[in-house]
Design goal:
The structure holds 2 protein chains of 2 kinds. By secondary structure, chain A is of the alpha+beta class. Chain A has one domain: 2-Layer Sandwich (Alpha-Beta Plaits), CATH 3.30.70. Chain A contains 4 helices and 6 strands. Chain B is an alpha+beta fold. Chain B contains 5 helices and 24 strands. In chain B, the strands form 6 sheets. Chain B has a 4-stranded antiparallel beta sheet. In chain B, strand 2 and strand 3 form a beta hairpin. Classes of the chains: A alpha+beta, B alpha+beta. The interface between A and B is large, with 52 and 57 residues.
């Protein structure tokens, strides 16, 4: 009898240990996921700027925005992401159309300004995030060999509402939305409005 | 063990289970699952308008496909018949060849007896006129350009320096290029008499050096902005027998001409997407070479193609984009003594040789006479 009791006690104790370990692991994983150190982000090597970021995000204005890497940017006068180079040129030979349908890509002259010949100026390109809807047309136009590839799409943490299942991630055919750790950067308070 | 003892044992287990932490844990777990499901942010229902594309049309495409959407490729034919024609006559170093470039093809040059010098895979490979490998030697892995002097010495440009090799591939000299804290991005190097001229795409200038590496002067600093405009960070040039330097000014879409002392003596070119004589995109032409009869050969990116111009800018020939991978960001060029154009495709890692067709050769001879 004492032998049976000992076996039951052993099984009981083992089950408790396994149960507590499982709950602890699950709690740890959930805590880590909820702690804000892992966020959704666009893998620019996989992204093809297919326009689904604009249409799939649960926000009315997508949390995905174009950003310009100034180290890569050529500061072109005829930026292929700014001008639609296939549009009709004006009398100075500059294309009249723009790539961004929202007019969210803005530019200004940097350095010495030559008002007579715009070809002598360098231009800095920035994105107006209040207008950018993440369609990625500029990103596509900036890709080499047309441009230097300085423009890319990024999920802005200030706008992302951190869905349990990102709708863009579900829709993305290139699996370009990934979870990335951001140590020491908790997501900022969301400013986005849901649809 | 009798039956009563077994019954007592089962009852004891049930009692133990009832008093253990399993039931409350199950209740808590079910409640947590309910809360998680209730507060889960659901994605907006997808409609045909929100998600019009069943699959991404760009998935699996290379960047080279981007250029094919441009109307320039359909309307690439010039309005008038051009004075020269070229046809592809040979390919060196491609896949399946005897000596393929495995990792890179950075530059090409033509030496004495029309021997072809190709820089790639951290090597210089020398091919004779029939395309057979005549020699090869290792150079810096990050070398980007090369040239062959009339006496057979080979100058190789890499980040921040130029190295000089003799005809057998033995390094005989070398010097640093650029400033102490700002090494030059050497994208082109040429030899003219007792000088070595180096394109510094970082400083956006051409630097003149003597054979010992002493800087003699700059070319390009007398332009309106004090340097070339190079959004694509690539500067190429060539020099004719009279000492006139032709250099690309990609941001301005210009082919510029300079004397050795740095005085600008002319330019031609403009941006345009429809006329084949124009230069497309943000920054073109990216490469150039001079023919023995003084014509200017240019290469463009975005619509990867090669064109031949008169010195005054009149378009003579177009070697169309069907010959090159459209993701090329530059096409190194060289011209041999017979007027054949050698164009490097860094993506396909091939040297493509274009020969003037018969009628064009006759016209060239007439022009020379």
């Amino acid at each position: 009898m004492s032998e049976k009791s000992t076996r039951r006690q052993f099984i009981d104790l083992s089950a408790r240990i396994v149960g507590f370990a499982g709950i602890g692991t699950a709690a740890g994983l959930l805590t880590r996921r909820a702690s804000g150190n892992v966020v959704y982000q666009v893998d620019s090597f996989k992204c093809t700027a297919c326009d689904l970021c604009r249409t799939s995000c649960v926000l009315s204005l997508s949390a995905v925005k174009a950003v310009n890497d100034f180290d890569k940017c050529g500061y072109c006068m005829l930026c292929p992401a700014y001008y639609d180079v296939t549009s009709l040129p004006d009398e100075k030979g500059i294309p009249t159309g723009k790539v961004c349908p929202q007019d969210a890509l803005k530019r200004r002259v940097v350095g010495k300004v030559d008002p007579e010949d715009p070809n002598n100026n360098y231009y800095e390109y920035v994105i107006d995030e209040t207008r950018c809807d993440g369609c990625g047309k500029c990103v596509k136009a900036c890709k080499p060999p047309a441009g230097n590839g300085s423009l890319r799409l990024e999920i802005r943490y200030a706008r992302c509402v951190e869905c349990n299942e990102c709708a863009i991630q579900i829709a993305c055919p290139d699996h370009a939305i990934v979870r990335v750790p951001t140590p020491g950067t908790a997501p900022m308070e969301s400013t986005g409005e849901r649809k | 063990m009798d039956s009563s003892e077994k019954e007592i044992g089962q009852a004891g287990l049930l009692e133990r289970f009832r008093k253990s932490w399993f039931p409350p844990a199950a209740v808590v777990g079910a409640f947590a699952a309910f809360v998680a499901a209730a507060f889960r942010t659901r994605p907006a229902p997808r409609t045909a308008v929100q998600n019009p594309a069943p699959r991404n049309p760009d998935a699996g495409r290379r960047t080279s496909d981007v250029g094919r959407e441009l109307p320039i490729l359909q309307g690439n034919k010039p309005a008038r018949p051009l004075d020269r024609e070229y046809s592809q006559s040979a390919v060196l170093g491609g896949r399946g060849s005897a000596h393929p470039f495995q990792r890179s093809l950075a530059g090409i040059a033509v030496g004495t007896a029309d021997r072809i010098y190709a820089l790639g895979d951290g090597q210089i490979r020398v091919f004779d006129a029939t395309g057979s490998l005549a020699a090869a030697w290792y150079v810096s892995e990050n070398a980007l350009c090369l040239t062959v002097a009339p006496d057979g010495r080979v100058c190789v440009g890499a980040l921040g320096r130029v190295d000089v090799y003799d005809v057998k591939g033995v390094r005989i000299a070398g010097f640093a290029v650029g400033e102490a804290k700002q090494p030059a991005a050497v994208t082109a190097v040429k030899v003219f008499r007792q000088e070595i001229l180096v394109a510094d795409a970082d400083a956006r200038l051409i630097r003149r050096y003597d054979l010992g590496g002493k800087q003699l002067g700059l070319i390009g600093d007398k332009s309106k902005t004090g340097s070339f405009m190079l959004p694509n960070r690539w500067l190429d040039f060539d020099i004719d027998s009279k000492g006139i330097i032709r250099a690309t000014d990609t941001g301005r879409h210009l082919m510029t001409a300079w004397t050795l002392d740095g005085t600008p003596v002319g330019s031609f070119g403009r941006f345009g997407m429809s006329d084949p004589a124009d230069f497309v995109g943000c920054c073109n032409p990216v490469n150039l070479a001079l023919t023995p009869d003084g014509k200017i050969v240019t290469a463009e990116k975005m619509v990867a193609r090669v064109k031949v111009f008169e010195a005054d800018g009149k378009l003579l020939a177009v070697i169309g984009p069907e010959h090159f991978d459209q993701s090329c960001t530059h096409i190194p060029l060289a011209v041999d003594s017979r007027g054949r154009i050698l164009a490097g495709d860094p993506v396909q890692r091939q040297v493509k040789i274009f020969s003037p067709v018969a009628g064009a050769v006759k016209r060239m001879e007439q022009e020379r006479s």
